[in-house]
Amino acid sequence: DVLYPSSSGSEVPLSDPPHNKELEKRTYYPRLIQTLKNVFRLQSFRPLQLEAICDAMEGLDVFVLFPTGSGKSLTFQLPAVCQDGVTVVVSPLISLIRDQHRALKGLGVDAEILVQEMSESDRSDLWRRLRGNGKPPSLLYITPERLELDGMRSVLTRLRQEGKLCRFVIDEAHLITDWGRSFRDSYVQLKTLKTVFPGVPISALTGTANPTVQSDIVSRLRLVIRQPYKLSHNRPNLDYDVRYKGKNVLGAIADWIKSTYPRDTGIIYCSSRDKCEEIAKILRDKFQLSARHYHAQMADTDKSHVQREWSSGKVRIIVATVAFGMGIDKPDVRYVIHHSLPNSLNGYYQETGRAGRDGKLAHCILYYNRPDFHTRLSMIRNQPSKENRTFEEDDIRRVMSYVMNDVECRRKQVLSFFCEDFDPARCRRMCNNCRDATPCVTEDHTGDAQRALRLFENLSRDSRLTPTQLSAALKGSKAQLQVERGWTNDPLHGTCSHLSQDVIDRLIDQMIWHDFLSIRTERSQDAYSQNYLALGSRANALRTGQQNLTISFRAGRKGTARAQQKPDSRAAHDVAPDEGPSTVPLRSIPSAV
Ligand code: ADP
Ligand code: MG
Ligand code: ZN
């Protein structure tokens, strides 16, 4: 069953519609095209770029939600170059500011940055220009903290009064909401921009925002937009595959690379610095592959040397930690292989997103096994700093349930993380689940869901629960927290112990999906947000049996509820000895609720 050519080169058409031809009639359109070609050296607009650019040219606020790498910057850079006055770009990271500055300078654009580490003469030059001695730059990049400083405010106020303050741009605008964990104080202060600088339009840009975050950004910044511009996170040219990680995983990886992409470049991600070095060495010495390692502890000169060699194609394979990637813009990366579990689904999306930027077919393969998962969990639990522990634990569990869900389209699963409802038919068998011809078995878990709901209601009377805590309670966990809070005394504690933890997690996911349960994000005193479960608006439909709940499995595959009740059915598959419990107590499942 050959689904795609094994060599690179098949062009996958993008499904996004071309821009509205009406926009080409705008009086400023010829200038846009000219600047696009002559200054930015680009040939045409990508989807929704022109729409956002036209709104900016007309002085409107703009909201842009495009996935990373799809070209958000042009939506404000092009108008900034075409209009008079200065466009102030607020960006969270000095390194991002420097990258954009360097790129713009390379194109001959009048862009400036104001950062701590800059020469005294550059700094005073810039201040002179901002104070009206000479023309202010077209673009000024700063961090949000700097925008709060009095000196900056008064200079910008003056510019506004003189009609020379063109626009504010908020890059990574999701940082303004406290719904995510990446909340940042000085970003929150940006909500005053409309009052402090009335009449100055704002562009808000982000690559990740669920619907709550989207509306929060728009309302906090008080944006008045024509319409939000959103592109799907779907990357149609990426093939997603999840594979079991056996003993000879490196041999399997080497074989796959040699037979599929012998002459192309790729990235192999792994979890630790030592692993990177070790794997790169094995790939070189044992498999004669052109591989080098890359991680954060290397000297800067070594890092940029390796990166250059890889970018130029001299080195084909880079074996790296997640430190590798930010600002990598190599268009023809043909594969991204995860030798170990990514930290989160978001991370997985970002890391795999480095493949196939040229729009041509590229492969993403994720290797997993349970021991890796457990190691990661215990590392998270044992780390000294408590702050992000629950988050990290939730993240890695979501990765694991992604990996274990061998039925649903991989794209659908990844995109649901971004709250996109993806129609699996659009995958066109570009993931291992859509390709898998093994029949699916659908089991009714309505009874389990009803009891899960009752247990949730019992336990949540006295304290709030996270999804992870409910999952553990359903499994019958005797963990300290469960005992301390008296949860283990509930007659329904352990009511789903006949199911594997993964199935229980999928059950809870589905309950949230159907709105029997809902998620409430709350900030605790120490400013970290936490996801708690709450009753969903359709809980009653489950209670009364109006709505049932089913879960699908591949027939006879390990890890399913059915296979766990009949351990011998696992024999057909190569089950690693260390994977999962080998015997599961057989007990009758109470069917009445
Ligand atoms: P984002 O901020 O959305 O992650 P960027 O604005 O940094 O993405 O753009 C990513 C890459 O896409 C850059 O290399 C940029 O030059 C390129 N790019 C942007 N717009 C176009 C276009 N219309 N045609 C070709 N390349 C483009
Ligand atoms: Mg960007
Ligand atoms: Zn699919």
UniProtKB/TrEMBL annotation:
EC number in record: 5.6.2.4
Catalysed reactions listed for this entry: Couples ATP hydrolysis with the unwinding of duplex DNA by translocating in the 3'-5' direction
Keywords from the UniProt entry: ATP-binding, DNA-binding, Helicase, Hydrolase, Isomerase, Nucleotide-binding, Nucleus
The Helicase ATP-binding domain, residue ranges: 53-227
Biased composition annotated in UniProt, kind: Basic and acidic residues: 565-576
Domain Helicase C-terminal: 252-397
Alphabetized GO MF terms: 3'-5' DNA helicase activity; ATP binding; DNA binding; four-way junction helicase activity; hydrolase activity
GO cellular component, as recorded: chromosome; cytoplasm; nucleus
Biological process per Gene Ontology, one example term: double-strand break repair via homologous recombination
Enzyme type, top EC level: isomerase
Family membership noted in the UniProt record: Belongs to the helicase family. RecQ subfamily.
Protein's recorded name: DNA 3'-5' helicase
Protein source organism: Pycnoporus cinnabarinus (Cinnabar-red polypore)
Source taxonomy: Eukaryota, Fungi, Dikarya, Basidiomycota, Agaricomycotina
Part of the full-length chain shown: 391 to 983 of 1135
